[in-house]
Write a structure and sequence with these properties.
mainly alpha; 73 residues; globular
Length: 73
């Protein structure tokens, strides 16, 4: 999984980049609470709303991983 901080926040993220951040479309879908089939219906260049959902999910994932490693909130 790619760290969101190393990618930076950008608009115009592609569906391929979003999937790559999570490793698979299934993992991406699970992180934002949708079914994997929905990810495949996204446009290749994400809308600002989809972009925000992907980045928010990545930040939650990174925060949870850091919390697990340090044992703090």
């Amino acid at each position: 999984m790619t760290d969101a901080c190393s990618l930076g926040y950008k608009y115009g993220m592609t569906k391929t980049e979003a999937i790559k951040m999570f490793g698979t479309a299934t993992k991406l879908a699970r992180a934002i609470g949708i079914c994997p089939q929905a990810v495949y219906k996204w446009p290749e260049v994400l809308t600002p709303l989809l972009n925000d959902r992907v980045m928010a999910a990545m930040m939650r994932t990174v925060h949870a991983r850091e919390r697990d490693l340090t044992g703090t909130e």
